[in-house]
Write a structure and sequence with these properties.
The complex is a heterodimer of chains A (476) and B (65).
Chain A: H1 25-35, H2 39-50, H3 55-84, H4 88-96, H5 98-128, H6 147-166, H7 169-196, H8 202-207, H9 209-222, H10 229-238, H11 250-253, H12 265-290, H13 292-295, H14 306-314, H15 316-344, H16 350-365, H17 368-372, H18 374-397, H19 408-412, H20 418-436, H21 446-466
Helix pairs in contact in A: 1-7, 1-12, 2-5, 2-12, 3-10, 3-12, 4-5, 4-18, 5-6, 5-14, 5-15, 5-16, 5-18, 6-15, 6-16, 7-12, 7-15, 9-12, 12-14, 14-15, 15-16, 18-20, 18-21, 20-21
Chain B: H1 2-24, H2 30-51
Helix pairs in contact in B: 1-2
The chains are: A mainly alpha (476), B mainly alpha (65).
Protein backbone atom coordinates (compact mmCIF):
# COMPACT_ATOMS: atom_id res chain seq x y z
CA UNK A 1 0.00 0.00 0.00
CA UNK A 2 1.46 3.37 -0.96
CA UNK A 3 2.19 6.17 1.43
CA UNK A 4 -0.23 8.30 -0.58
CA UNK A 5 -3.18 6.37 0.72
CA UNK A 6 -2.08 4.61 3.86
CA UNK A 7 -0.81 5.39 7.28
CA UNK A 8 0.65 2.85 9.70
CA UNK A 9 -2.13 0.56 10.60
CA UNK A 10 -3.97 2.02 7.62
CA UNK A 11 -5.34 -1.36 6.53
CA UNK A 12 -7.75 -1.14 9.45
CA UNK A 13 -8.98 2.41 8.79
CA UNK A 14 -12.58 1.30 8.28
CA UNK A 15 -12.83 -1.97 10.16
CA UNK A 16 -12.10 -3.21 13.68
CA UNK A 17 -8.48 -4.20 14.29
CA UNK A 18 -8.36 -8.02 14.18
CA UNK A 19 -6.96 -10.16 16.99
CA UNK A 20 -3.86 -10.98 14.91
CA UNK A 21 -2.82 -7.31 14.73
CA UNK A 22 -3.09 -6.54 18.44
CA UNK A 23 0.01 -5.32 20.26
CA UNK A 24 1.39 -6.01 23.72
CA UNK A 25 1.55 -3.28 26.34
CA UNK A 26 5.32 -2.76 26.06
CA UNK A 27 4.89 -1.30 22.54
CA UNK A 28 2.64 1.42 23.93
CA UNK A 29 5.10 2.38 26.67
CA UNK A 30 7.76 2.97 24.01
CA UNK A 31 5.40 4.93 21.76
CA UNK A 32 4.22 7.30 24.46
CA UNK A 33 7.69 7.81 25.92
CA UNK A 34 8.95 8.91 22.51
CA UNK A 35 6.00 11.04 21.49
CA UNK A 36 5.96 13.38 24.44
CA UNK A 37 9.63 14.33 24.41
CA UNK A 38 8.87 16.79 21.63
CA UNK A 39 9.69 20.26 20.45
CA UNK A 40 6.76 21.73 22.35
CA UNK A 41 8.41 20.83 25.67
CA UNK A 42 11.25 23.31 25.03
CA UNK A 43 8.67 26.10 24.73
CA UNK A 44 6.22 25.09 27.45
CA UNK A 45 8.72 24.55 30.30
CA UNK A 46 10.18 28.10 30.31
CA UNK A 47 6.67 29.57 29.94
CA UNK A 48 5.78 28.26 33.43
CA UNK A 49 8.67 30.21 34.92
CA UNK A 50 7.88 33.30 32.84
CA UNK A 51 4.26 33.12 33.98
CA UNK A 52 5.35 33.16 37.63
CA UNK A 53 4.68 29.57 38.73
CA UNK A 54 6.53 28.71 41.95
CA UNK A 55 8.92 25.74 41.87
CA UNK A 56 7.01 23.77 44.51
CA UNK A 57 3.70 24.39 42.74
CA UNK A 58 5.28 23.26 39.48
CA UNK A 59 6.70 20.05 40.93
CA UNK A 60 3.49 19.08 42.76
CA UNK A 61 1.03 20.51 40.24
CA UNK A 62 2.58 18.69 37.31
CA UNK A 63 2.64 15.49 39.36
CA UNK A 64 -1.09 15.68 40.12
CA UNK A 65 -2.07 16.89 36.64
CA UNK A 66 -0.12 14.16 34.90
CA UNK A 67 -1.63 11.47 37.16
CA UNK A 68 -5.10 12.76 36.21
CA UNK A 69 -4.15 12.66 32.52
CA UNK A 70 -2.97 9.05 32.77
CA UNK A 71 -6.17 8.05 34.60
CA UNK A 72 -8.25 9.71 31.88
CA UNK A 73 -6.47 7.73 29.18
CA UNK A 74 -6.76 4.50 31.11
CA UNK A 75 -10.41 4.72 32.17
CA UNK A 76 -12.00 6.86 29.45
CA UNK A 77 -10.18 6.04 26.21
CA UNK A 78 -9.00 2.45 26.59
CA UNK A 79 -12.35 0.74 27.39
CA UNK A 80 -14.01 2.24 24.30
CA UNK A 81 -10.94 1.69 22.12
CA UNK A 82 -10.82 -2.00 23.07
CA UNK A 83 -14.57 -2.50 22.73
CA UNK A 84 -14.83 -0.92 19.27
CA UNK A 85 -11.25 -1.16 17.92
CA UNK A 86 -11.95 1.63 15.42
CA UNK A 87 -10.08 4.84 14.57
CA UNK A 88 -11.41 8.08 16.00
CA UNK A 89 -12.40 9.20 12.51
CA UNK A 90 -14.36 6.08 11.61
CA UNK A 91 -16.00 5.93 15.03
CA UNK A 92 -16.97 9.58 14.67
CA UNK A 93 -18.23 9.00 11.13
CA UNK A 94 -20.55 6.25 12.39
CA UNK A 95 -21.95 8.51 15.09
CA UNK A 96 -21.82 12.00 13.62
CA UNK A 97 -21.70 11.38 9.86
CA UNK A 98 -19.04 11.83 7.19
CA UNK A 99 -19.86 15.51 6.65
CA UNK A 100 -19.26 16.39 10.27
CA UNK A 101 -16.02 14.40 10.33
CA UNK A 102 -14.79 16.53 7.41
CA UNK A 103 -15.55 19.71 9.36
CA UNK A 104 -13.87 18.29 12.48
CA UNK A 105 -10.88 17.28 10.37
CA UNK A 106 -10.62 20.76 8.82
CA UNK A 107 -10.67 22.44 12.24
CA UNK A 108 -8.11 19.90 13.45
CA UNK A 109 -5.93 20.59 10.39
CA UNK A 110 -5.98 24.35 10.93
CA UNK A 111 -5.07 23.94 14.61
CA UNK A 112 -2.28 21.55 13.59
CA UNK A 113 -0.91 24.28 11.30
CA UNK A 114 -0.55 26.66 14.25
CA UNK A 115 1.05 23.95 16.38
CA UNK A 116 3.47 23.17 13.55
CA UNK A 117 4.10 26.92 13.22
CA UNK A 118 5.25 27.04 16.83
CA UNK A 119 7.61 24.16 16.10
CA UNK A 120 9.00 25.97 13.05
CA UNK A 121 9.74 28.92 15.35
CA UNK A 122 11.42 26.59 17.86
CA UNK A 123 13.60 24.98 15.19
CA UNK A 124 14.50 28.36 13.67
CA UNK A 125 15.52 29.66 17.11
CA UNK A 126 18.04 26.83 17.34
CA UNK A 127 19.34 27.23 13.78
CA UNK A 128 19.73 30.95 14.49
CA UNK A 129 22.16 30.45 17.41
CA UNK A 130 25.23 29.42 15.35
CA UNK A 131 24.24 31.93 12.64
CA UNK A 132 24.08 34.67 15.28
CA UNK A 133 20.51 35.54 14.33
CA UNK A 134 18.65 36.84 17.36
CA UNK A 135 15.17 35.65 18.30
CA UNK A 136 13.24 38.85 18.97
CA UNK A 137 9.65 38.54 20.14
CA UNK A 138 7.57 41.65 19.32
CA UNK A 139 4.95 42.98 21.69
CA UNK A 140 2.07 42.59 19.20
CA UNK A 141 0.50 39.15 18.80
CA UNK A 142 0.82 39.42 15.02
CA UNK A 143 4.11 41.30 14.97
CA UNK A 144 7.10 39.91 13.08
CA UNK A 145 10.55 39.31 14.54
CA UNK A 146 13.63 40.90 12.93
CA UNK A 147 14.08 40.41 9.16
CA UNK A 148 16.86 37.81 9.50
CA UNK A 149 14.82 35.65 11.87
CA UNK A 150 11.71 35.92 9.68
CA UNK A 151 13.72 34.77 6.65
CA UNK A 152 15.16 31.93 8.71
CA UNK A 153 11.63 30.85 9.70
CA UNK A 154 10.65 30.88 6.01
CA UNK A 155 13.62 28.67 5.10
CA UNK A 156 13.10 26.22 7.97
CA UNK A 157 9.36 26.09 7.22
CA UNK A 158 10.03 25.43 3.54
CA UNK A 159 12.38 22.54 4.30
CA UNK A 160 9.94 21.00 6.81
CA UNK A 161 7.01 21.37 4.39
CA UNK A 162 8.88 19.83 1.47
CA UNK A 163 10.00 16.87 3.60
CA UNK A 164 6.45 16.41 4.91
CA UNK A 165 5.09 16.53 1.36
CA UNK A 166 7.49 13.72 0.41
CA UNK A 167 5.87 11.54 3.10
CA UNK A 168 6.05 10.89 6.79
CA UNK A 169 8.02 7.65 6.85
CA UNK A 170 11.61 8.89 6.84
CA UNK A 171 10.99 11.52 9.50
CA UNK A 172 8.95 9.07 11.55
CA UNK A 173 11.96 6.73 11.53
CA UNK A 174 14.28 9.56 12.57
CA UNK A 175 11.82 10.46 15.35
CA UNK A 176 11.75 6.83 16.46
CA UNK A 177 15.54 6.61 16.60
CA UNK A 178 15.98 10.04 18.18
CA UNK A 179 13.41 9.58 20.97
CA UNK A 180 15.63 7.90 23.64
CA UNK A 181 18.44 10.33 22.83
CA UNK A 182 16.11 13.33 23.15
CA UNK A 183 14.93 12.13 26.56
CA UNK A 184 18.59 11.80 27.65
CA UNK A 185 19.35 15.31 26.33
CA UNK A 186 16.36 16.80 28.18
CA UNK A 187 17.54 15.14 31.40
CA UNK A 188 21.14 16.24 30.84
CA UNK A 189 19.99 19.83 30.19
CA UNK A 190 18.06 19.87 33.46
CA UNK A 191 20.94 18.40 35.46
CA UNK A 192 23.46 20.85 33.96
CA UNK A 193 21.07 23.75 34.60
CA UNK A 194 20.77 22.73 38.26
CA UNK A 195 24.57 22.71 38.46
CA UNK A 196 24.74 26.11 36.77
CA UNK A 197 22.41 27.73 39.28
CA UNK A 198 24.31 26.10 42.16
CA UNK A 199 21.34 23.98 43.24
CA UNK A 200 23.45 20.91 43.93
CA UNK A 201 21.95 20.05 47.32
CA UNK A 202 18.42 19.10 48.26
CA UNK A 203 18.19 22.02 50.68
CA UNK A 204 19.12 24.54 47.95
CA UNK A 205 16.59 23.05 45.55
CA UNK A 206 13.88 23.06 48.21
CA UNK A 207 14.68 26.65 49.10
CA UNK A 208 14.29 27.53 45.40
CA UNK A 209 16.04 30.89 45.69
CA UNK A 210 17.44 30.62 42.16
CA UNK A 211 13.90 30.08 40.86
CA UNK A 212 12.39 32.99 42.75
CA UNK A 213 15.22 35.25 41.57
CA UNK A 214 14.57 34.22 37.97
CA UNK A 215 10.84 34.95 38.32
CA UNK A 216 11.64 38.34 39.84
CA UNK A 217 14.00 39.05 36.92
CA UNK A 218 11.33 38.14 34.34
CA UNK A 219 8.53 40.03 36.05
CA UNK A 220 10.62 43.17 36.50
CA UNK A 221 10.80 43.32 32.69
CA UNK A 222 7.61 41.61 31.48
CA UNK A 223 5.24 42.84 34.20
CA UNK A 224 3.68 40.88 37.06
CA UNK A 225 1.95 37.57 36.28
CA UNK A 226 0.68 34.70 38.37
CA UNK A 227 0.25 31.03 37.50
CA UNK A 228 -1.46 29.18 40.32
CA UNK A 229 -1.14 25.58 41.51
CA UNK A 230 -4.54 24.70 40.03
CA UNK A 231 -3.69 26.27 36.69
CA UNK A 232 -0.64 24.00 36.57
CA UNK A 233 -2.71 20.94 37.55
CA UNK A 234 -5.43 21.62 35.00
CA UNK A 235 -2.95 22.49 32.25
CA UNK A 236 -0.93 19.31 32.79
CA UNK A 237 -4.13 17.26 32.88
CA UNK A 238 -5.72 18.81 29.81
CA UNK A 239 -2.91 19.91 27.51
CA UNK A 240 -3.50 16.62 25.72
CA UNK A 241 -7.26 17.01 26.15
CA UNK A 242 -7.86 16.41 22.45
CA UNK A 243 -6.07 13.07 22.75
CA UNK A 244 -7.78 11.67 25.88
CA UNK A 245 -11.01 13.58 26.55
CA UNK A 246 -11.24 14.17 22.80
CA UNK A 247 -10.70 10.44 22.10
CA UNK A 248 -8.08 11.04 19.41
CA UNK A 249 -6.03 8.21 20.93
CA UNK A 250 -8.75 5.68 20.15
CA UNK A 251 -6.73 5.33 16.94
CA UNK A 252 -3.72 4.14 18.97
CA UNK A 253 -5.38 2.06 21.67
CA UNK A 254 -7.55 0.13 19.17
CA UNK A 255 -4.40 -2.02 18.83
CA UNK A 256 -4.16 -2.73 22.59
CA UNK A 257 -4.30 -6.38 23.58
CA UNK A 258 -4.61 -5.68 27.31
CA UNK A 259 -6.21 -2.88 29.29
CA UNK A 260 -2.89 -2.41 31.04
CA UNK A 261 -1.67 -0.64 27.87
CA UNK A 262 -3.75 2.26 29.14
CA UNK A 263 -1.10 3.01 31.75
CA UNK A 264 1.51 3.61 29.03
CA UNK A 265 0.83 7.36 28.68
CA UNK A 266 2.50 7.59 32.12
CA UNK A 267 5.82 7.20 30.29
CA UNK A 268 5.06 10.18 28.08
CA UNK A 269 3.66 12.28 30.89
CA UNK A 270 6.43 11.74 33.41
CA UNK A 271 9.30 11.93 30.93
CA UNK A 272 7.94 14.60 28.58
CA UNK A 273 5.45 16.59 30.63
CA UNK A 274 7.23 16.32 33.95
CA UNK A 275 10.98 15.83 33.63
CA UNK A 276 11.33 17.65 30.29
CA UNK A 277 9.12 20.62 31.24
CA UNK A 278 10.94 21.11 34.52
CA UNK A 279 14.32 20.67 32.79
CA UNK A 280 13.38 23.24 30.12
CA UNK A 281 12.20 25.68 32.79
CA UNK A 282 15.48 25.21 34.69
CA UNK A 283 17.35 26.16 31.51
CA UNK A 284 15.74 29.61 31.60
CA UNK A 285 16.52 29.98 35.30
CA UNK A 286 20.16 29.07 34.58
CA UNK A 287 20.45 31.50 31.66
CA UNK A 288 19.04 34.33 33.77
CA UNK A 289 21.50 33.59 36.57
CA UNK A 290 24.60 33.19 34.38
CA UNK A 291 24.02 35.43 31.37
CA UNK A 292 20.96 37.57 32.01
CA UNK A 293 21.75 39.83 29.04
CA UNK A 294 21.12 36.87 26.68
CA UNK A 295 17.64 36.36 28.10
CA UNK A 296 16.52 39.93 27.37
CA UNK A 297 15.40 40.97 23.89
CA UNK A 298 15.99 44.38 22.27
CA UNK A 299 12.61 45.54 23.61
CA UNK A 300 13.78 44.90 27.17
CA UNK A 301 11.47 41.93 27.71
CA UNK A 302 12.54 38.39 28.66
CA UNK A 303 11.86 35.87 25.89
CA UNK A 304 12.63 32.19 26.12
CA UNK A 305 14.74 31.30 23.09
CA UNK A 306 14.73 27.47 23.12
CA UNK A 307 17.84 27.21 20.93
CA UNK A 308 19.84 29.57 23.10
CA UNK A 309 18.68 27.87 26.32
CA UNK A 310 19.73 24.41 25.14
CA UNK A 311 23.00 25.73 23.70
CA UNK A 312 24.05 27.31 27.00
CA UNK A 313 23.58 23.97 28.78
CA UNK A 314 24.74 21.36 26.29
CA UNK A 315 26.35 23.21 23.38
CA UNK A 316 25.82 21.80 19.89
CA UNK A 317 24.00 18.75 21.27
CA UNK A 318 21.40 21.10 22.73
CA UNK A 319 20.97 22.87 19.40
CA UNK A 320 20.65 19.56 17.54
CA UNK A 321 18.05 18.39 20.04
CA UNK A 322 15.92 21.52 19.63
CA UNK A 323 16.12 21.28 15.82
CA UNK A 324 15.29 17.56 15.74
CA UNK A 325 12.56 17.86 18.39
CA UNK A 326 10.94 20.75 16.52
CA UNK A 327 11.31 19.08 13.14
CA UNK A 328 10.00 15.66 14.19
CA UNK A 329 6.97 17.33 15.84
CA UNK A 330 6.25 19.72 12.96
CA UNK A 331 6.58 17.06 10.29
CA UNK A 332 3.70 14.69 11.22
CA UNK A 333 1.65 17.72 12.23
CA UNK A 334 1.95 19.27 8.75
CA UNK A 335 1.44 15.85 7.15
CA UNK A 336 -1.81 15.29 9.09
CA UNK A 337 -2.98 18.83 8.34
CA UNK A 338 -2.34 18.15 4.64
CA UNK A 339 -4.46 14.99 4.82
CA UNK A 340 -7.24 16.97 6.52
CA UNK A 341 -7.19 19.60 3.77
CA UNK A 342 -7.17 16.88 1.13
CA UNK A 343 -10.32 15.46 2.75
CA UNK A 344 -12.06 18.78 2.08
CA UNK A 345 -10.92 18.91 -1.55
CA UNK A 346 -10.85 15.21 -2.52
CA UNK A 347 -9.55 15.78 -6.07
CA UNK A 348 -6.49 17.69 -4.86
CA UNK A 349 -3.12 15.98 -4.52
CA UNK A 350 -1.80 15.21 -1.05
CA UNK A 351 1.52 16.84 -1.95
CA UNK A 352 -0.15 20.15 -2.86
CA UNK A 353 -2.28 20.11 0.29
CA UNK A 354 0.72 19.28 2.49
CA UNK A 355 2.63 22.18 0.96
CA UNK A 356 -0.38 24.41 1.60
CA UNK A 357 -0.44 23.26 5.24
CA UNK A 358 3.31 23.89 5.42
CA UNK A 359 2.82 27.41 4.05
CA UNK A 360 0.14 28.18 6.64
CA UNK A 361 2.38 26.74 9.39
CA UNK A 362 5.35 28.79 8.19
CA UNK A 363 3.27 31.96 8.19
CA UNK A 364 2.14 31.16 11.74
CA UNK A 365 5.76 30.47 12.70
CA UNK A 366 6.78 33.92 11.49
CA UNK A 367 4.82 35.44 14.39
CA UNK A 368 6.93 34.48 17.43
CA UNK A 369 4.25 35.59 19.86
CA UNK A 370 2.07 32.69 18.75
CA UNK A 371 4.63 30.21 20.11
CA UNK A 372 5.07 32.40 23.20
CA UNK A 373 1.32 31.89 23.78
CA UNK A 374 1.62 28.11 23.60
CA UNK A 375 0.08 27.61 27.07
CA UNK A 376 -3.08 29.39 25.87
CA UNK A 377 -3.05 27.73 22.46
CA UNK A 378 -2.83 24.22 23.89
CA UNK A 379 -5.77 24.90 26.22
CA UNK A 380 -7.80 26.33 23.34
CA UNK A 381 -6.92 23.32 21.21
CA UNK A 382 -8.33 21.01 23.90
CA UNK A 383 -11.43 23.19 24.30
CA UNK A 384 -12.21 22.99 20.58
CA UNK A 385 -11.46 19.31 19.89
CA UNK A 386 -11.96 17.73 23.32
CA UNK A 387 -15.77 18.00 23.46
CA UNK A 388 -16.19 15.83 20.37
CA UNK A 389 -14.92 12.98 22.56
CA UNK A 390 -17.96 13.46 24.81
CA UNK A 391 -20.19 12.57 21.84
CA UNK A 392 -18.33 9.25 21.54
CA UNK A 393 -18.38 8.54 25.31
CA UNK A 394 -22.06 9.40 25.78
CA UNK A 395 -22.97 7.51 22.59
CA UNK A 396 -21.12 4.42 23.81
CA UNK A 397 -22.32 4.33 27.43
CA UNK A 398 -25.68 6.10 27.55
CA UNK A 399 -27.56 6.09 24.26
CA UNK A 400 -28.80 2.46 24.34
CA UNK A 401 -29.63 2.72 28.06
CA UNK A 402 -31.78 5.78 27.39
CA UNK A 403 -33.64 4.06 24.57
CA UNK A 404 -31.76 6.01 21.88
CA UNK A 405 -29.81 4.63 18.94
CA UNK A 406 -26.03 4.65 19.14
CA UNK A 407 -23.96 5.21 15.98
CA UNK A 408 -26.96 7.02 14.56
CA UNK A 409 -25.31 8.27 11.36
CA UNK A 410 -24.34 4.72 10.37
CA UNK A 411 -27.88 3.49 11.06
CA UNK A 412 -29.72 6.35 9.39
CA UNK A 413 -27.31 7.11 6.56
CA UNK A 414 -27.12 10.77 7.66
CA UNK A 415 -24.19 12.80 6.34
CA UNK A 416 -24.41 15.07 9.36
CA UNK A 417 -25.90 14.11 12.72
CA UNK A 418 -27.43 17.44 13.68
CA UNK A 419 -27.47 16.55 17.38
CA UNK A 420 -23.71 15.93 17.36
CA UNK A 421 -23.00 19.08 15.34
CA UNK A 422 -24.96 21.43 17.61
CA UNK A 423 -23.77 19.65 20.77
CA UNK A 424 -20.17 20.18 19.66
CA UNK A 425 -20.37 23.76 18.34
CA UNK A 426 -22.51 25.36 21.03
CA UNK A 427 -20.32 24.65 24.10
CA UNK A 428 -17.17 25.30 22.07
CA UNK A 429 -18.42 28.73 20.97
CA UNK A 430 -19.30 29.59 24.58
CA UNK A 431 -15.88 28.32 25.67
CA UNK A 432 -14.08 30.40 23.04
CA UNK A 433 -16.09 33.47 24.07
CA UNK A 434 -15.06 32.96 27.70
CA UNK A 435 -11.40 32.46 26.68
CA UNK A 436 -10.98 35.29 24.18
CA UNK A 437 -13.47 37.87 25.44
CA UNK A 438 -13.66 37.20 29.17
CA UNK A 439 -10.02 36.15 29.61
CA UNK A 440 -10.69 32.67 31.07
CA UNK A 441 -7.57 30.48 31.38
CA UNK A 442 -8.04 28.30 28.30
CA UNK A 443 -7.48 24.88 29.92
CA UNK A 444 -10.26 25.61 32.45
CA UNK A 445 -12.83 25.48 29.64
CA UNK A 446 -12.09 21.92 28.48
CA UNK A 447 -14.00 19.84 31.05
CA UNK A 448 -17.12 22.08 31.30
CA UNK A 449 -17.36 22.15 27.48
CA UNK A 450 -16.89 18.38 27.36
CA UNK A 451 -19.70 17.71 29.88
CA UNK A 452 -22.01 20.26 28.23
CA UNK A 453 -21.39 18.68 24.83
CA UNK A 454 -22.23 15.18 26.10
CA UNK A 455 -25.43 16.30 27.82
CA UNK A 456 -26.55 18.37 24.84
CA UNK A 457 -25.91 15.43 22.54
CA UNK A 458 -28.26 13.24 24.57
CA UNK A 459 -30.99 15.89 24.83
CA UNK A 460 -30.81 16.86 21.16
CA UNK A 461 -30.77 13.21 20.06
CA UNK A 462 -34.15 12.76 21.77
CA UNK A 463 -35.56 15.24 19.28
CA UNK A 464 -33.55 14.47 16.14
CA UNK A 465 -33.65 10.67 16.23
CA UNK A 466 -37.45 10.51 16.22
CA UNK A 467 -37.54 12.68 13.13
CA UNK A 468 -35.44 10.32 11.05
CA UNK A 469 -36.24 6.66 10.45
CA UNK A 470 -33.29 4.27 10.63
CA UNK A 471 -32.42 2.76 7.26
CA UNK A 472 -29.10 1.03 7.87
CA UNK A 473 -28.05 -1.30 10.64
CA UNK A 474 -24.89 -0.85 12.67
CA UNK A 475 -22.35 -3.55 11.91
CA UNK A 476 -19.23 -2.56 13.82
CA UNK B 1 26.51 -8.04 16.32
CA UNK B 2 23.08 -6.68 17.25
CA UNK B 3 23.92 -6.97 20.94
CA UNK B 4 27.23 -5.15 20.42
CA UNK B 5 25.48 -2.32 18.57
CA UNK B 6 22.94 -2.02 21.36
CA UNK B 7 25.75 -1.74 23.88
CA UNK B 8 27.41 0.95 21.75
CA UNK B 9 24.11 2.89 21.69
CA UNK B 10 23.81 2.54 25.44
CA UNK B 11 27.34 3.86 25.90
CA UNK B 12 26.45 6.76 23.60
CA UNK B 13 23.46 7.63 25.79
CA UNK B 14 25.77 7.39 28.78
CA UNK B 15 28.11 9.92 27.17
CA UNK B 16 25.17 12.33 26.90
CA UNK B 17 23.85 11.81 30.40
CA UNK B 18 26.67 10.80 32.79
CA UNK B 19 28.97 13.82 32.24
CA UNK B 20 26.07 16.12 33.14
CA UNK B 21 25.78 14.30 36.47
CA UNK B 22 29.52 14.67 36.98
CA UNK B 23 29.19 18.41 36.25
CA UNK B 24 26.37 18.55 38.78
CA UNK B 25 28.70 16.90 41.28
CA UNK B 26 31.47 19.42 40.47
CA UNK B 27 33.78 16.76 38.99
CA UNK B 28 34.15 18.05 35.40
CA UNK B 29 33.96 21.35 33.55
CA UNK B 30 31.02 22.25 31.30
CA UNK B 31 33.25 22.23 28.21
CA UNK B 32 33.94 18.52 28.76
CA UNK B 33 30.22 17.83 29.24
CA UNK B 34 29.30 19.49 25.93
CA UNK B 35 32.14 17.75 24.05
CA UNK B 36 31.26 14.29 25.38
CA UNK B 37 27.55 14.89 24.73
CA UNK B 38 28.31 15.70 21.10
CA UNK B 39 30.49 12.59 20.73
CA UNK B 40 27.71 10.51 22.32
CA UNK B 41 25.18 12.08 19.94
CA UNK B 42 27.24 11.23 16.88
CA UNK B 43 27.77 7.65 18.04
CA UNK B 44 24.05 7.29 18.84
CA UNK B 45 22.94 8.36 15.36
CA UNK B 46 25.50 6.10 13.68
CA UNK B 47 24.96 2.97 15.79
CA UNK B 48 21.25 3.04 16.62
CA UNK B 49 19.77 2.95 13.07
CA UNK B 50 21.74 -0.28 12.55
CA UNK B 51 19.73 -2.17 15.17
CA UNK B 52 16.57 -0.23 15.94
CA UNK B 53 13.64 -1.70 13.99
CA UNK B 54 12.73 -0.06 10.71
CA UNK B 55 9.10 -0.98 11.29
CA UNK B 56 7.09 2.13 12.07
CA UNK B 57 4.94 2.20 15.21
CA UNK B 58 1.17 2.45 14.74
CA UNK B 59 1.25 6.03 15.96
CA UNK B 60 3.81 7.25 13.39
CA UNK B 61 1.50 9.92 11.97
CA UNK B 62 -0.17 10.67 15.26
CA UNK B 63 0.27 14.13 16.75
CA UNK B 64 0.65 14.58 20.49
CA UNK B 65 1.60 17.69 22.40
Amino acid sequence: MSEETASPGGEYEREPVPESALLGSSKFWGMYAGEHAAGTEFMIGPLFLSAGASLSDLVLGLLLGNILAVLTWRFLVVPIAMAKRLTLYYQLERIAGGGLVKLYNLVNGLLFCFLAGAMVTVSASAVGVPLNISFDVPTNLFGLSNVSFTLLVAMVGLVIAVVAAAGYKTVARVANIAAPWMIAVFAACGIVALGQVGATEVATIREGRFWDDAIAFVQARNGPQTFSFWQIVVFAWLCNGAMHFGMSDLSIFRFARHKSAGWAPAAGMFLGHYMAWIAAALLLAALIKLQPELAVGPDGRVNANPGMLAYQALGWTGILCVVIAGWTTANPTIYRAGLAFQGIVPKSSRTAMTLLAGAVATMAGAFPNLSAKLLDFVGTYGTILGPMGAVIVFDFYLMPRLGLRDEFAARSGARVNLAALIAWLLPVLVGLYLIFVRGLFAAYAVVPCWIACGLLYIVLSKFTQGARLPTTQSNA
Amino acid sequence: MQMLLRIVSLVALGLVLVPSMMYFGGMVALAIVTRLALIGTLIWFVATPMWMGRELPVDATHVEI
